[in-house]
Amino acid sequence: MSVTSSSVGIVSAQYAAFDTPLALACGAVLPAYQLAFETYGTLNAAKSNAILICHALSGHHHVAGRYSESDKSAGWWDNMIGPGKPIDTERFFVVGVNNLGGCHGSTGPSSINPASGQPWGADFPMVTVADWVIAQARLADRLGIERWAAVIGGSLGGMQALDWSIRFPERIAHALVIASAPKLSAQNIAFNDVARQAILTDPEFHGGNFYGQGVLPRRGLRLARMLGHITYLSDDGMGEKFGRMLRSGEYQFGFDVEFEIESYLRYQGDKFSDSFDANTYLLMTKALDYFDPAREYGGDLVKALQRASAGFLVASFTSDWRFSPERSRETVKALVAAGRRVSYAEIESAHGHDAFLMLDPPYVELMRAYLGRVAAEISA
Length: 380
What we know:
14 strands, 2 domains, homoserine O-acetyltransferase activity, alpha/beta, eight-stranded mixed β-sheet, Rossmann fold, Rna Polymerase Sigma Factor, Chain: A
């Protein structure tokens, strides 16, 4: 397989080690840590064309490109990033980071705790969106980037973009907040807790210290992913793709896989449980639960967003019931009340919450148009 001309091509991960302690929102201090990241495109002489991509719950720093010519798995947003694509690497220098607590190269529960010489496991501290943004700011300092042309993210990534605009208003020109929310609803917190309980009650979890036991809590992580995946899809989308199709064409009158949707979910759960860390999943879902930037401002989201100076693009998808358009409109309403510059689009899509990863034409053109404006500002 050859890498196409619209791809960023062959890429490799980079690692930045930080010896300056990081005080976390939970009160703990990480004495040192590492961040895994990738970059695409070229940073201009003024260092004004950098874009940060923030990942969602199960994402990571491998956002675009492939690791070799034979690699069949491109970065998770490869369809959006590259030469001539909406996030155009001929115009922008794009940075993807694996967040603290991750399991793809950044310091997390499976990393070695220098104090014990063993994996952190359950001793790894809770991390929040604010902690990630502060760590990302330190990485930007390391790369010589004083101000991002844009910070972009979907879902949990959108929360990071929103936090960037409030926490470091002078360091971000535009925030693209896609399929996200200013805080989770009670229903979303409930989904996350059920997923966590599946992991926490797995006999192979061992209180989070399973690394030295020669086992993995695959069953719990598999169930958590299956539950989560259902919420990322829309009813219409699942119906169109799977309907009530039977694998054998006849009822088998048992509890094994009979319907195609069951087969699909079990496949997704199995694949995820082999590639993701259970402790990381727990940390990421709690970071989602804790996110509420208005909390530091007496519960007033308008007051929180008055700190921002960036331009905003907020986008939602009609079939997304996990992060519904109503939640995006809540953000837009607060931005307008705060006197901020904001564009909003509600995009027709059957892909549910996963729509932010897809190539629905109106979505692609929206991103292309908005980022074209960002590029024009840089060139002006």
